[in-house]
């Protein structure tokens, strides 16, 4: 099933059903050799899922030496390692059959690839059996030409229910974040990008960002139309700090055709030095408004 009723509702509202059907032909279940080669070059992978106990949706960052993510079958990827025990997504990934979305994003080439399916723990980490595999265009993706792996050790996570002033400043300065959403049949993680300031903190417990024109599939907004739970991941590309937010989101449609998403925060996890990767300064996407 390429699209569910939530995505169809948004496509019809915007008037892009035919285009969505055309673009949707690129979604498959198999991992092609070129996609497998791309995965093995990546030092990071973002996963999204719902906590089986609380129902909260989170997005988490996994990192490793290139090759830590690889295709181990036509419809399977395997990940060496996994989230830290104190990561909010850890319980979900310890549960066999958990619906999970993944995205491998390469800032060096502005390429990204998504594999959505079912996760199961393995002796070396986890595996994901793919239900949907597809790539996205480079729109709104900032180029970062190089990275280095540092030896920094993750700090103790700081938890809360609202953004602190410092956290709000980091969100407002972000040019990229990842959005995890769920639906009745699975989960998905997408990328959102723009010039710094494109995400606005309107209150300690509320964020808002514009929904820029994309591929017309409306997978994320379709998921939110069916289930408002969502998780956001912000990464400090230099210091390695991650900021994970969980809450609910809804799309607002303006009379002029513009769209924006309003996110209400219910949980915050900030982890200093969570990522060992230090990336070079960004070159902003020419597609950014």
UniProtKB/TrEMBL annotation:
Lineage of the species this protein comes from: Bacteria, Bacillati, Actinomycetota, Actinomycetes, Kitasatosporales
Pfam families for the chain: PNPOx_N (PF01243)
SUPFAM superfamilies to which the protein is assigned, alphabetical: FMN-binding split barrel (SSF50475)
PANTHER family given in the database record: FAD-BINDING, PUTATIVE (AFU_ORTHOLOGUE AFUA_6G07600)-RELATED (PTHR42815)
Organism the protein comes from: Streptomyces siamensis
Name of this protein: Pyridoxamine 5'-phosphate oxidase family protein
Domain Pyridoxamine 5'-phosphate oxidase N-terminal as annotated: residue spans: 168-258
Region of interest: Disordered: 79-101
């Amino acid at each position: 099933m390429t699209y569910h009723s939530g995505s169809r509702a948004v496509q019809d509202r915007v008037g892009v059903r035919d285009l969505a059907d055309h673009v949707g032909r690129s979604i498959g279940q198999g991992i092609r050799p070129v996609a497998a080669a791309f995965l093995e070059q990546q030092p990071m992978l973002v996963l999204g899922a719902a906590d089986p106990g609380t129902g909260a949706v989170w997005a988490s960052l996994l990192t490793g030496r290139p090759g830590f993510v690889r295709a181990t079958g036509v419809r399977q990827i395997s990940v060496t390692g996994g989230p830290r025990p104190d990561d909010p997504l850890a319980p979900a990934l310890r549960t066999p059959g958990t619906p999970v979305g993944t995205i491998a994003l390469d800032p060096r080439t502005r390429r990204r690839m998504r594999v959505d399916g079912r996760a199961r723990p393995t002796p070396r980490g986890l595996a994901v059996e793919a239900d949907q595999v597809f790539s996205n265009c480079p729109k709104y993706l900032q180029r970062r030409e190089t990275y280095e792996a540092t030896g920094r050790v993750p700090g103790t996570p700081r938890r809360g229910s609202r953004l602190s002033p410092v956290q709000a400043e980091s969100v407002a300065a972000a040019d990229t974040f990842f959005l995890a959403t769920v639906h009745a049949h699975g989960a998905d993680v997408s990328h959102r990008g723009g010039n710094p300031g494109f995400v606005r903190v309107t209150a300690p417990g509320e964020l808002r960002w514009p929904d820029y024109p994309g591929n017309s599939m409306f997978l994320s907004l379709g998921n939110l139309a069916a289930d408002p739970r969502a998780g956001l991941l912000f990464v400090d590309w230099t210091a390695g700090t991650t900021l994970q937010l969980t809450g609910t989101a809804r799309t607002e449609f303006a009379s002029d055709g513009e769209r924006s998403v309003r996110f209400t925060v219910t949980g915050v996890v900030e982890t200093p030095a969570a990522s060992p990767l230090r990336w070079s300064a960004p070159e902003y996407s020419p597609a950014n408004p």
